[in-house]
Design goal:
6 helices, mainly alpha, single chain, 434 Repressor (Amino-terminal Domain), 141 residues, 2 domains
Length: 141
């Protein structure tokens, strides 16, 4: 199969994850740039879905996000019915896994998947164990 020139990196998925974590933590683009070594202008372009990060920046950002790199790679094989396989790892928080499954559901619009993900995050935060944050990880003091 010939390469069609389509990017193998899902910058939309990466940008959403960066913006969500940055806003939840109350960080500016400059703060994230200082923590990751990725320039604020590159971060801004990625958040807006227009950036094309190189392999080093992808590694830095997925490390900062504590996200498996495979989550943002779109070169994975499709299932027989054309749906994308959802790749996740045991260390991922439950809301992140649920969100990945919702986004992979071809019966849901992007807006519906996003809304359901946010609803799940709120419910998960309310009903999860004390001392855990909405991402399901233990809070650090």
């Amino acid at each position: 199969m010939a390469h069609t020139g389509k990017s193998l990196v899902n910058t939309i998925e990466l940008g959403r994850a960066i913006r969500r974590k940055r806003e939840e933590a109350g960080l500016s683009l400059r703060d994230v740039a200082d923590e990751t070594g990725v320039s604020a202008s590159t971060l801004s372009r990625i958040e807006n879905g227009t950036g094309k990060p190189d392999a080093d920046n992808i590694a830095r950002l997925t490390g900062w996000l504590d996200m498996p790199m495979e989550r943002v790679m779109s070169g994975r094989a499709d299932d027989a019915d054309g749906t994308k396989a959802v790749v996740y790892f045991p260390q991922e928080a439950t809301p992140d896994i649920v969100e990945a499954h919702l986004r992979a559901d071809r019966n849901l619009s992007e807006e519906t998947a996003k809304a359901l993900s946010e609803l799940f995050r709120v419910a998960y935060a309310q009903f999860s164990h004390p001392g855990e944050d909405p991402r399901g990880r233990n809070k650090r003091k």
